[in-house]
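Dear support,

I submitted the protein below through the web form. The confirmation email said the job was done, but the results page showed an empty box. After a refresh the structure appeared. I'm attaching both so you can tell me whether what I see now is the final result or a partial one.
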Amino acid sequence: RKTQPAAHHLIANGSQSADLVPCPRSLDHPCRTLRNRHPNFHWMPSVVLTLAAAVGGASGAVTGVFERPVQAYVAPDTHAWFSQILNPGTGPLILSASLGGDGTTAKCPGTCAGSPGAGGCPHVNHSTACSVSLLSTDNGRSWQPLSGFLGANDIVVLPGANGGPTNGTFLTLPYRLAVDYATNTSATSVNGYARISSSGAYTRGNNTSVTMQWLAKPNSTWPSILVHSGTVVSLTDGSLLTTLYGHGTGAYRDWTAHSTTFFVRSADGGRTWSELADIPWQPAYGEHADGPAEPNTARLADGTLWCVYRSDAGQNFWSATSADEGRSWENVRPLNFSWSVRPQLRVTSRDMLVLTGGRPGIDLWASADRGATWTRFNIAAEHNRLLGTGDPSLLYDPQVVNADGPHVPRASPEPETSSYTGLTEASDGSLVLSYDRLANGWHDRVWAPNGTLLPGCWGSADRVFTMRLSLTAA
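What the results page shows now:
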């Protein structure tokens, strides 16, 4: 561990000068030979940023204590990315990650490959799982396989008897929803109940197949493509709020309808959800923006609901607030200090606001004064510093480490991380963060004609890491 100095933010230290295996040109691989990857790093001043829309108390920086990253999962021959940390509320944590393509249909029979590599489809004839789930019973210090759990985009944690503390029973939430194209006013998803006890014992519920209903407003319709994304927030009347986003059909960024973020409410414990409100596309996002999308919502100390969402890859996050339990949203504006994909927003038990994201880079922003000021922590840099000068295939390239805003291109020749993060507060008060390091960017692994798996630009395997950290007002 190392405590962050109050006046400076550690980018990284040490040096590394190791060559990776050159990317194979003979197979027309999308990558090319790279230079040595880890020159000396340096110190940079801490950055404290102001959220103009927020009202807070006295400003001040936040300091962080970061623990050595844990290599939670190494993919033998698939992707491993888009991780999420699920918290059933009994102590143990679930880490869920995708092994498949980026929202695409598998194109390689018997695998979850999203797009064949330059060498063609993997030379296998068996079915490969398209997600992995792991369990931690020590607040994220270590992870073990969680067999039988197929993963979830998020969960609805159910209260215990007579409204008491949960016993770890939850209802899983989906990613893709099946829109009823006959009317486009409803959608369904099939999910199930499960339980994680305080000891980490996993049991599936008796009702393992629950058909959820997702209902559009009267005189309104869902877009053709509709997915769930975001946390579940308890409302003051005992109901639940979560978020969706969707868009039309067609080529990426040229859909028949722009993206929209939707807020939905459930009064029956998560089995039926009805649309409350939406945040539509606006020209400020860009004509070909992929947002508003990937929303994440939390309740602030004054009761206000705050939603942070993706406006477009490579652009700043935007946010909105609701003072009426999600029925309407205002203060729609960019967050000029944070960027770019799938924000994770949490209000900790110490009333600290924490936001994670990236692309480029992997970052965490924290506020101890209810959003008046924010301190940025460079997670990719902390990752490198804590792992030291060991295996370069575990470290991030300076292109990732030195990224200081959405204007910076992603790592070339292939992205080294999706910049998607998972975030939760563990039972001991520490935060647990998940993130990925990719071997071959968005491309699936490359197989030679003889069936040999070739290394990618950035190493031999995709990896999912977790990191424990503690934040304190300076």
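Response: this is the final, complete result; the empty box was a page-load delay. The first helix runs from residue 379 to 387.
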